[in-house]
Amino acid sequence: MTYEEFRRQLGKAGLTVKGFAELIKQTPNSITNYAAQREVPPHLAIIAALMGDMAEGGLDFRATLARIQFEASKPRGGAVKGRFGGSKQIDLQLSSNL
C-alpha cells in the first residue's frame, strides 16, 4: 500500500499518523519514516485498511484494540537512554591502580 493510501485509510478511521502510532504503541517517527519509501509494510497496511472499513461501517475499532494486551516495541539499534548516539561498544570496567 502506498503511504498516501495509508494516510487516506487512517483519515477514514478519523486518525492522524500520531493517533495511529499511539494506538499500536509505536513512535510517530517510526510510522512517518515510511513516507520516504512511499510504501508501508503489509501489516500496517492491513491494520489501517481494517480500521478505515470498521469506522465506515460504524464499528468501534478502539474498543477492539483496547481488549488486546501488548507491549510497545523495543527500540532497535544501539540507543541507550541518556547517552547521545547510543552505545556502540560495551563499557569496560577498568580499575585505576596507578
Notes on the protein architecture:
The protein has helices at residues 3-12, 17-23, 28-32, 34-37, 42-56, 61-66. By secondary structure, the chain is an all-alpha fold. It has a domain at 3-66. The protein starts with a helix and ends in a 32-residue tail after the last helix.
Brief account:
The protein is mainly α and 98 residues long. Helix content is 48%, strand content 0%. It has helices at residues 3-12, 17-23, 28-32, 34-37, 42-56, 61-66.
Backbone structural class? mainly alpha
State the helical fraction.
Answer: 40-55%
List the total number of helices.
6
Beta-strand portion reads: under 5%
Mean pLDDT: 84
- Mind describing the biggest β-sheet? none
H/E element order: HHHHHH
Low-pLDDT runs: none
Q: Looking at the chains present, what oligomeric state does this protein adopt?
A: single chain
Radius of gyration: 19 Å
Shape: elongated
What separation lies between the terminal Cα atoms?
62 Å
Number of strands: 0
Write the layout of secondary structure elements.
Blueprint lengths: L2 H10 L4 H7 L4 H5 L1 H4 L4 H15 L4 H6 L32
Helix pairs in contact: 1-5
Task: Describe the structure using short key phrases.
single chain, 98 residues, mainly alpha
